Amino acid sequence: MAIDQDITTREDIEQFIRAFYEKVIRDETLGIIFTEIIPLNWELHIPLITDFWETILLDNPVYRKNAMEVHYHIDRIYPLGQEHFESWLKLFNSTLDEMFLGPVTELAKKRGAGIAQLMQHKMNLLNDKL
Ligand code: HEM
Fold first, then answer.
1. In CATH, which of 1.10.490.10, 2.40.30.10, 1.20.1070.10, 1.10.1760.20 is domain 16-129?
2. Ligand 1 geometric centre to CA of 2 (Å)
3. Residues 79-98: pLDDT tens digits?
4. How many Cα atoms are found within 13 Å in the side-chain-facing hemisphere of 104?
């Protein structure tokens, strides 16, 4: 079926996030982080990540936490490098492309890349100070 729908609802985001994490947990580079290093409670994590993207993509401020902090914590116990961020972005973008098409989908890709870059940059700064 041709993909001609953009992301318009929270349900769209949740559907996309579930598909993304199915890929992430099977990924050679990333899987272990979500299954062994920080075993996640998916029934809590999926709504939280959906909140995060709803805030960004649908302009509805339901996510009020600091997403950076948890990643600094992960980086301290399991250093995150270029290869992790590249895999994350590749899976994130390919999941979006398989499901949606349009300006909100493009915004998701742009924000995903921007936040990933900022996260890596901040981690490098923090690690250099140690
Ligand atoms: C190498 C790349 C990444 C890895 C391995 C990773 C891994 C994780 C893990 C394991 C958690 C759960 C932490 C916990 O509950 O203790 C988490 C939470 C989260 N991640 Fe990532 N992440 C990555 C990149 C990103 C990026 C680029 C974004 C945003 C664009 C993002 C957004 C989030 C958000 C919003 C949460 C929830 C934070 C909260 O507790 O409020 N992650 N991530």
1. 1.10.490.10
2. 31
3. 999 999 999 999 999 999 99
4. 19
CB 108 within 8 A of CB 57: yes
Q: CA 73, CA 66: separation in Å to the nearest integer?
A: 12
| Ligand 1, residues at Cβ distance < 6 Å | 30, 33-34, 38, 40, 48-49, 52, 65, 67, 70-71, 74, 80, 84-85, 88, 112, 115-116, 119
C-alpha 71 – ligand 1 centre gap (Å): 6
pLDDT digits (tens, 9 = 90+) for 33-92: 999 999 999 999 999 999 999 999 999 999 999 999 999 999 999 999 999 999 999 999
Whether the model clears a pTM of 0.90, i.e. scores above it, the answer is yes
